Amino acid sequence: MGKRKLKSVFAVAMLLAVVAIAWYFLPERGTPANLIQLDSQSLLMLKDKFNQAGNGARLIVLLSPT
Q1: Cβ neighbours for 58, distance < 8 A, ≥ 6 positions apart
Q2: Handedness of CA 16, 17, 18, 21 (dihedral sign)
Q3: Quick one: pLDDT at residue 42?
Q4: Would you list the DSSP string of 22-58?
Q5: Would you say 36 and 42 are in contact if contact means Cβ atoms under 8 Å apart?
Q6: Per-residue pLDDT tens for 7-61?
Q7: Category of 19 on φ-ψ map: left (φ > 0), alpha (ψ -120 to 50) or beta
Q8: Torsion over CA: 61, 55, 53, 33 (sign)
């Protein structure tokens, strides 16, 4: 194995180690408390909350797995 390839393997290994350590120490991931799961039951609640925030910034993000 040449020196250049050895340096590349070492760099990748170090990068993976840094990512693994960062992943370990990051806080648990989860859904923030102020998000609303949109379904037919919660549509009116979403409309009301959206209209109540008329003086502030409003953002609706729709994510679909397909």
Answers
A1: 50
A2: positive
A3: 82
A4: HHHHSPPP---TT----STTTHHHHHHHHHHTTTS--
A5: yes
A6: 999 999 999 999 999 888 887 766 667 776 777 778 888 888 888 887 888 887 7
A7: alpha
A8: positive
pLDDT at 63: 77
For residue 10 the two structure tokens come to 């070492």
| Structure token digits, residue 55 | 């003086």
Measure the CA–CA gap between 50 and 58, rounded to whole angstroms: 7
Cβ-in-10-Å burial (0-12, 13-18, 19+) of 46 comes to middle
Integer Cα distance of 35 and 50 in angstroms:
12
Q: Which pair of tokens denotes residue 59?
A: 């953002």
